[in-house]
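2024-03-11 09:14:02 DEBUG pipeline.ingest accepted 1 chain
2024-03-11 09:14:02 DEBUG pipeline.ingest length=239
2024-03-11 09:14:03 DEBUG pipeline.predict start
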Amino acid sequence: MYLFEKIKKVNCECIIKALLEIFLDTANIDEMKHILKWGIIDGVTTNQKIFLNEKGVDFKTRIKEICNLMGNKPVSVESNGKTVSEIVNDARDFTKIAKNVVAKVPMTKDGQGLEALHILSNEGIKTNVTVMMNFNQLMLATKAGATYVSLFYNRAKDSGENAVKIVREITDWIEHNNYDTKLIVGSIRKPDDVYEAVAAGAHIMTIPYKILIQMPFHPKTEDTIEEFDKAWKEFISNK
């Protein structure tokens, strides 16, 4: 019986790891179209800084374009509000644009973000609580009913936090308490960040285009392909 339970536990752990999702962190249509062809994208996240790069676009029009491209996959859209009413009204407004919009809610220092989150959760609006740097913030957002909680991985590191430890502890806590909330790990600066966070148990990685396009590359893979190409040419010439 003990052996069976041990095998069952291992199998469950493998299933949890297999559920990793990848989101693209962008508001650029060309970037989305490129990566969608790879067949790996499960959602999109946007924010104010990302939209700053999309000069001259209409905000709501671009959100609708992104949502149409993504079909029924989630698209996170961020509120600029600071008060409960501003955040809630933004969320209600954004979710009218398309059915797959997820309203981003900031983790404000005065708890107004949490209060707004609680209201939105009760209304059945999907939420992504963002700009979080430590376990306590993630834990509170999960308790308040967040659909997604976003850890800003490298910004947390910049502030002196142990980001890998936070990923491990919050995912364990979420799973132990049977919450439906998923952890998104963002603020990714290099491909190795993806490896670290996935190995630590992240549910979702949101990755900028410039990082994602680096991930298929390994120099030894390129060398090996070149070696095989040369061998094939030699094989053909010997016929």
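2024-03-11 09:14:41 DEBUG pipeline.report Confidence is low (pLDDT under 50) at residues 1-18.
2024-03-11 09:14:41 DEBUG pipeline.predict end
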